Amino acid sequence: MKLDPDCIRDILLTVERHTTFDNDVEPKDFSTDGLVQKYGKQKLLYHIRQAGESGLLSRVKFYMAGFSIQDLTPAGHQFLADIRSDTNWNKTKKVAAKIGSTSLQTLISVASNVISDLIEKTMYPK
């Protein structure tokens, strides 16, 4: 299955929105946020697995009847912070498409560079 960067971002936003210290994220949370309807169950599960294996989600467990996600990892929080704004996310996707790679590692790197560029422009305006 082809990786859908928007699906990854939506997963991270949902996990952040629904996790607490005592509560893991479960399928109902993704239904509540409309992600099952938007992406379909198989695509959503695939992207949850990819985000977990890429170190963005902690303690992803799959069961016969569903799954649970404990939280975002520190790397997941960092990536989400970098792409939270639609402006930064769209710029990240545009740069990734221009260089021809939308792998998670490329997206993470590009997002970090987009933020670094914004910091530099803010601190040292021309």
UniProtKB/TrEMBL annotation:
Protein name per UniProt: DUF2513 domain-containing protein
Pfam families recorded: DUF2513 (PF10711)
Database matches in InterPro entries: DUF2513
Domain of life per record: Bacteria
